[in-house]
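Quick entry between incubations.
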Amino acid sequence: MYTFAPELGIDHILKIFTSKQELSGHLDNLKGQGKSIGFVPTMGALHMGHLSLIEIAKKLTDIVVCSIFVNPTQFNDPKDLELYPRPIEADTIKLREANCDILFLPSTGEMYAGTETWHIDLGYIETILEGKFRPGHYQGVTQIVKKLFDVVLPDKAFFGQKDFQQVKVISKMIEIYKMPVEIVTCPILRESDGLAMSSRNIHLSGTERIQALALSHTLQITRENAPFKTLNDLKALAEEYLTNSDGVDLEYFEICDTETLLPAKDTSTSLVALVAAKVGKTRLIDNIIIK
Ligand code: PAF
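Done. Structure below.
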């Protein structure tokens, strides 16, 4: 463990751990003092969206642990893994400014000691939407989140609504392993023009950044039109708009039941519209609750 020395006049101390054993010993001590633990797992390249999770975690728990680990097993494209941004110094400063208490920054060897196999039966949820376009992705996500939860043993874990399906998958994993952790889903943070905040946005060129607005724009229009149109019409209109949007390569647009994530049949349940598209080489996802 080492302590990040403040040099910007900020006196909050961020403790940084790279070893699972040391972190777990430190947290055991805090839990022994009756402190509740909030956990924000991330892959770094922190933006305001991540920092809002830290802020919410600070309000709901005594000690906030953030992890930064770019998890190789959840990338199905090696190029994507290689290009994933890793601005660790800037991230550390952001966490300290956000009054985060602990950063867990393990190496790949610390998280994946030897060759191991992992498979968890997540059911249909891992083969639809994201799962259809990123086979194996949710096996990798559950593999690492289980490992991280086993070290941190948090009372509450905080995830962004932007990865709507991920929250469902992790909730399913918690149910399977009967883990005593509460999942808190936090709202999507958007830029002033509506673009959902994402670590991947930094890969967008100026033109692509404007083209990417088609995603949030479509979601917004879908929500506005929802009281007046059928689900089929809403989906058809959105797909037509996105398919004809310059620079946008649509992967899916779906309106789903928020509980099951299956395509909604009628408007009697709570609904979420979800979209995934490539803008240039950058793959973006976004969603909005429409009812
Ligand atoms: O959402 C992410 O950043 C990642 O999927 C997570 C949950 C940190 C697991 O690597």
